[in-house]
Amino acid sequence: MKGIRNIIVAGCSLFLLCQCATRDDVRKLNYQVRAVNQRVEEVKSTTVDQMQKRQASSVSKIDQVGEELLQLKARLEENAHQEKEYRRQNMESLTTLQTAIEERLATDEQKIVELQQQVAQLSAGLESMQQARLRAAEQRARDAARKAELARKRTVMAASAVPGPSIIRVTPQIRKMRVSSGQGTTEPVAEKPSRTTETIPTAPHSQATGNKASVQTVVTPDTVSGPLEQAMAKFKKGQYKEAYRGFEQVLASNPRGKKAAQTLFYMGEALYNQGEFDLAILDYQKVISNHAKDSHTPSALLKQGMSFEKLTDNETAKIIYNKLINEYADSPEAAKARQRLKNL
Fold first, then answer.
1. What is the pLDDT of residues 219-251, one digit of tens each?
2. 135 is a domain residue
3. In terms of domains, do 231 and 189 share one?
4. Collapsing DSSP states into helix, strand and coil, what is residue 154?
5. Distant-in-sequence, close-in-space partners of 105: CB < 8 Å, separation ≥ 6
6. Number of folded domains in the chain?
7. Could you give the CA distance from residue 201 to residue 210 in angstroms, rounded to a whole number?
8. Which pLDDT belongs to residue 246?
9. What is the CATH number of the domain that holds 262?
10. Is the CB of residue 335 less than 8 Å from the CB of residue 302?
11. How many C-alpha atoms does 84 have within 13 Å on its Cβ side?
12. Three-state DSSP class for 174?
C-alpha cells in the first residue's frame, strides 16, 4: 500500500511539473518514475511472492491440520465404537455371570437344605441309637444285678443251711477308775477292754437230733473300727475279694444308709481291680440309678465307661462318657471323660 501511495504522489507531482519543467527535469522525472516503478515492481514481486509462499505454507499447514483433525475424528469414532462394543460385551458378561451365580446359589441352597435334613436325620438316628444302647446297657446292668442278687441270696441260703458255731463278739463296756490314796479322788487308768458277749447262733442241727449249736467266742478290742472302715482297709491293701465281702455285709446291714452309695461304688472298684468288668458295671449302675445326687455318681459313670472300654465296647463307653459330660459338666470326672473321648 505504501508503494502505491508513492506512485500516486509521484504521478501527481509529474503532472503538476509537466508544464513548467524542463526536459532535463522531465528526463530526471522519467528516470525517477522508472526507478520508482521498478522499485514498486520489485517490492510487489517480493511481497506477493512472500505472501503467496506464506499463503501456500498456511494452506499446507491448514490441510495438514485438517488431515490430522480427520484422523483424530476417525480415531475418536473408532474408540467410541470400541467402547460401546466393550460395554455391550461387559453387560452380556455381567448378565451371564449374575445368572450363573444365581443358579449356583439356588443349587447350593438346595444342597445345604438337603445336607441339613440329612444331618438332622443322622442326629436323630444317632440320638435314638445312643438312647437305645444306653437303655440296653442299663437293662443288661439290671439283669446282671438281678442275677448277682439271686446268686448272693443262694449263697446266703447255702451258708445258713450249713451247721456251724455261733459267734460271740466282745466289745468294751466300762472304763476302770483308780482311787487315789488318802484324798478320795479318782483318776483314770489305761483303758482295757472288758468282755461282753453277743451270741449269734448259726443254723442248728436238725431238731430231730436234739443237738445244740456250738458257740465260739471272738474277742475284738475297742481299737477295731467299724465294718466299712475294715473293708476299706482291706481294699487299700489290695485284698479285693475280702474287701468286697466286707462291703457286701455293710450294704446288707443298711442298704439305704448314708454310706450306701460309697459302699456300692467301692464294691464296683473291688470287682474292677479283679478284672470282673461285667460285674463292676452292675455295681456302678446301682450307684448311678439309685444315688444320682451322690458325690460318687460321676466317678461311677467314669469307671463304668472305662469298664466298657475294657470290654472293647467303645460305642457304649462313648455314650456313658457323653452322659457324664452332659449331666456333670463341671466335675473333674467330666474333664477326664472328654480326654478319653478324644482317644477313642
1. 343 344 688 999 999 999 999 999 999 999 999
2. no
3. no
4. helix
5. none
6. 3
7. 15
8. 93
9. 1.25.40.10
10. no
11. 6
12. coil
Q: Which of 76-80, 118-122, 157-161, 170-174 has the lowest average pLDDT? A: 170-174
* Shared domain check, 340 and 229: yes
Chain CA centroid to CA 123, Å: 17
- Do 218 and 240 lie in one domain? The reply is no
Is 132 inside any structural domain? Answer: no
Note whether 178 and 186 are within 8 A (CB).
Answer: yes
How far is the C-alpha of 91 from the C-alpha of 89, rounded, in Å?
A: 5
Phi, psi (rounded to 5 degrees) for 32: -65, -40
For the chain, first and last CA: distance in Å? 118
pLDDT surpassing 90 at residue 337: yes
Please tell me the predicted confidence (pLDDT) of residue 2: 66
Query: What does the block give as the cell for 321?
Result: 462318657
- Report whether pLDDT(176) > 90: no
**β-bridge mates for residue 177, sequence order:** 188
Mean pLDDT of the chain: 76
Vertex 95: Cα angle to 91 and 100 (nearest 5): 150
Which residues, 6 or more positions from 33, have their beta carbon under 8 angstroms from its beta carbon?
A: 10, 11, 14
Beta bridge partners of 169: 198, 218
Strand, helix or coil for residue 182: coil
Q: Is 50 exceeded by the pLDDT of residue 145?
A: yes
